[in-house]
Amino acid sequence: MQTPEIIANRVAQVRDTLRSLELDAFIVPHDDEHLGEYIPADAERLAWLTGFNGSAGVAVVLTNRAALFVDGRYTVQARLQAPGEIFEYHHLVETPHVAWLADQLERGARVGFDPRLHSLNGYREAKALLADRGIELVPVAQNPIDQHWDDRPAPSKTPAILYGEELAGESSTAKRERIAADLRKRGLDAALLTQVESINWLLNLRGRDVERLPVVLGFAILYANGTLDFFVDTDKLECFAFTQHVGNDVSLHPIDKLGEVLSRLGEDRLRVLADPATSNAWSQLTLEEAGATLVAGQDPTLRLKACKNEVELAGMHNAHQRDAVAVVRFLAWLDRLVQSGDFDGVDEGTLADRLEAFRKESDLYVEPSFDTISALGPNAAMCHYRHTNGVPRPFGLDGIYLVDSGGQYLDGTTDITRTLCVGEVTEEQKALFTRVMQGHIALDQARFPRGTAGIQLDVLARLPLWQAGFNYDHGTGHGVGHFLSVHEGPQRIGPKGNLEPLQPGMVLSNEPGYYREDGFGIRCENLVVVTECEEPSEVPMLRFERLTHVPFDTRLIDRSLLSPDEFRWINEYHAEVRRRLSPLLEGDDLAWLEQATELL
Amino acid sequence: MQTPEIIANRVAQVRDTLRSLELDAFIVPHDDEHLGEYIPADAERLAWLTGFNGSAGVAVVLTNRAALFVDGRYTVQARLQAPGEIFEYHHLVETPHVAWLADQLERGARVGFDPRLHSLNGYREAKALLADRGIELVPVAQNPIDQHWDDRPAPSKTPAILYGEELAGESSTAKRERIAADLRKRGLDAALLTQVESINWLLNLRGRDVERLPVVLGFAILYANGTLDFFVDTDKLECFAFTQHVGNDVSLHPIDKLGEVLSRLGEDRLRVLADPATSNAWSQLTLEEAGATLVAGQDPTLRLKACKNEVELAGMHNAHQRDAVAVVRFLAWLDRLVQSGDFDGVDEGTLADRLEAFRKESDLYVEPSFDTISALGPNAAMCHYRHTNGVPRPFGLDGIYLVDSGGQYLDGTTDITRTLCVGEVTEEQKALFTRVMQGHIALDQARFPRGTAGIQLDVLARLPLWQAGFNYDHGTGHGVGHFLSVHEGPQRIGPKGNLEPLQPGMVLSNEPGYYREDGFGIRCENLVVVTECEEPSEVPMLRFERLTHVPFDTRLIDRSLLSPDEFRWINEYHAEVRRRLSPLLEGDDLAWLEQATELL
């Protein structure tokens, strides 16, 4: 926690730089150069400046005022962490920061930004909006925060992990050739890769540069002949072993050589594929100014990475089996805790720690795949609740406990939510839990033709709630990486604009929920893999295969609402869970599993 | 039917003009200046040139060859009608005509087109694609076909209908003011309106200029102060009565003055809203070249027109009640025909005529809302079958008859499909009919939050088929106008890209189907209105209210597949049909209704 005095001093330092650069404002986003969801500690510029350490937001410093913009998840946390006497607060969606800036400044004003921390699309939109008001958007060569951040953490030096073909299922050379062939077909000379998951997947690398995301940070340029320039802290790689691992066609460069190579691509007049939505403005402007032709398009690794091969899927299945054992042991322990009645010192934090302790018993476990959401009673009504942002709620006050957690294992990534009966629950809560389960079951059972997008299936998970007048305000399913980000695209199941067809091998979550503000929260989440149907059909059909095998809490089910099909699904699922996990459990845990998977 | 000699002569005449204009090719689309679905006889240039009279397609005439491009609906008809020795045939989707042209021509070639018959978007895409190959796209001042079309039908002179507020529910002045207020809010000076349905709705006009579409043809410019310039064949309007009808703020102009006014808007440097997807290139290029700023956006009448007001909805309900009586009398007659066993002279054509005869008994009936699809046995497997394109199939050979038809009534537009048992049917056919009905019922029963788009609901109508490995290759629901086009946007229920939220007052069809090539076809279609739910709910919910009340053929249902909810739906629907129609029927028809709506 930073004191208001420290924050005030930092803001003053940034203002000094603004004055020297003749700027009237400066924009500080949460993002780093890779524009991904997770960033390393040395990129937490927004937290340094404001004290606010949430995972999304943007600050704007003017000469005489400053503002912090966050979305609905973080309105409470922002007020707790960023001093109100220095920062005014705005809702990022209701009051977008660029529009707000345009209203604050006079014609002729100059707004500074770091072009490495904004997407090209974001930059262009901001530039157009400000230009309409006669305001100039000025790229800075060096970020003012970097100039003043004295106690900045050193960047990670953890060695990269050469991720073997026995885990990745395909050599980097083969992956590069598949994409290079596509570049050639499209008449492109190269592709700029800036998303770290993409590069780690393509080079069969992993690392520990970022918490929750097992990657080594870097940039890459893939050429149409299959060669690749990799920009990375070369200290993290043993050169000879790396070359053996990825092949001779990959050249290593220090990260600060990226600009030079981009300029050379421009001088050679290359046609370069880059994604203006996910790649930073600086890299694309550098290419363009040097003479390259930018061809806007999706990161070419995304779809290939999303469709897991058989080795990756085997790893995901194995990781999920291990994870299921840990979760079941936690659930058995939790029920014993409830029965004991002794809740002394137990709270959301100790519960999360206990769950991780079970996961840590696996040799292949690396870290959580995201910060565990361990939420009792009303806290579960906040979809992205983090007990570490305040005082963890003590156990014993509530009927319902929601725990959403996952693990990064060397062979796969997991993500599971269970909603549990830990006290008295009302009939209404049971009815709502049952409707959430009915949505989960309907989506799980769907068969759908090739070409179907997640937006088309989303309603299946919502309809039981809709029919009763309820809904939930988040997507139903996100993509999941293979020992990579627990959130990956392009696949998604949700009510909004993503029309990407679901394809065999894509991993997705199935997680409908229901949230009663200040009351309780319900979410039922398994991971599934898109698979071809074996059953004969007139048109080629796909379906979901389950990765997650952990009992749902049948004590929360209102049986009167279930159809025979839904009874059958629950019983078959629980029989499958028992079949898979019984051999891996013993004693009280095995007894718990048998009781938790009894026929409904 | 045109002889090949006549067609050859016409193509030669067009080639003469090409030579005189130094063009290497000329593009002839089916579209007219309004780019809508239905066009008047004097705009059937494609049919004049090729003999093909389908509702979609495009021909390309080169100096030494010619080609006709049609979609899957019309591959058979195109070969029957357009002489193969003159036109080669291509599939419009698999071999788009512009790409094909680019492959045929040398660099430096010149391709002529009539900019009034192509959207601005279509023009820009074609221009870019051809420019990539060094080919020029050249607008012609006069369409070569118009120069040679000697026996061209005279344009309609039928007087316009002043459509009273007792039918329209809102004055033209009020409608114009609603849109003008929006233009002012968006900083726009005017909107170019080229879709005839939009203009007829906005001015509370109807006409008989086009078959199946009760409109008077014209163009309009609406200004931000609510005034409007209407470009129309002024012979069709009695000036004094018209001004009384629409108010003093509407100025009448002959259609050929449009270019002059567009140029004046340009000289005045106005910001003009125009829809580049639905408005022709000529009008927007004229504006732009004269100095106007084009602001691309959806036709501003679309959403307002789509959300019917209470008077329009009352008209729709009344029209549907009248239509239901006609359809039920036809269905009763059909069952008596089947029982009689005397099918002499009965075929798809006489059935369609008989159905229309029942509709014609209503004073308010104007014409069919589209060409009736009267399809026996295998013909029903073609979704857009027209018995008038070949020899109508005789009655008595098949188990299943599909009839998709509708009426334009002065107070509303109808569209209904029933699939009927008229002979022996197989268990498989019954199972498939039942699955189509299950989809129809699931969509009909859905409740959904405000903001939901049709693409999200589409799966409800398909899932019962998907779960058995089947699908259908068309959308599930199209928008329907109010005594206007039976196909209107922006609302739609389908698997592809339309994300327009469904709003109260929008009318849509609910028409899942199943098609077995060379076998049979099934479709179950009602029209519904989007309505607010009265039931209490946590978030504002919408649902569908049914407009169509005609029995479904329960002889085709496999009861073993139905859930209790589906039984209940069918029985409640039939009880409602009986309640509404019994008082309007008598004798054998009433007896038929009672038997057709018996409890399942």
Summarize the structure.
With about 600 residues, chain A is α+β, with helices and mostly antiparallel strands.
Description:
2 copies of one chain form a homodimer. The longest helix of chain A has 31 residues, at 310-340. In chain A, 36% of the residues lie in helices and 20% in strands. The mean pLDDT of chain A is 96. With 600 residues, chain A is an alpha+beta fold. Chain A starts with a helix and ends with a helix. Chain A contains 19 helices and 28 strands. Chains A, B: Residues 315-532 form the Peptidase M24 domain. Chains A, B: Keywords: Aminopeptidase, Hydrolase, Metal-binding, Protease. Chains A, B: InterPro entries: Creatin/AminoP/Spt16_N, Creatinase/aminopeptidase-like, Creatinase_N, Pept_M24, Pept_M24B, Peptidase_M24_C, X-Pro_aminopeptidase_P. Chains A, B: One of its GO terms (molecular function) is aminopeptidase activity.
